[in-house]
Amino acid sequence: MVKATRFWDLVLLGATALAVTWILVRVFYGSVPPIPIFAGASLYLVAAIETVLAFMIRSRIKDHRIGPGPNQIHPITAARAAALAKASALVGAATAGVWCGFLIYLVPQQSVLDAAGADAPGAWVGLVAALAVIAAALWLEHCCRTPEDTNDEPAH
Fold it and tell me: Dihedral of the CA atoms 118, 123, 124, 125 (nearest 10)?
């Protein structure tokens, strides 16, 4: 069984990525290639897929369509989706930290460096995408939980 993702694990990972990125960008910004506007946009696709998957799994679990048959979700598939959700939340937190590290450097530099002004929109797109992945992953993880038994009858 996969343990639920803890909020503080995400915060710690994001904060660590932020600090390391900020230090590296501060030292090596002149060597960093320009950040394209859609640099982090691929994460939107991941967030969308995980959201759709979450609603599909939630629907099948809610309707008690769990098992190996057609139109059912196999328990192993739900467990794999929960593991994917946990991994995605961690990747999203690390990515959000990286984009925040860039933005903490770039935003104050926009009035001084033209490159910072050109790089900031791509960092904002990446940050929002990373936050979308975190939200979608946590929703998918929530949807993969087993339903609470409300009666004392054994499950069939």
Answer: 100
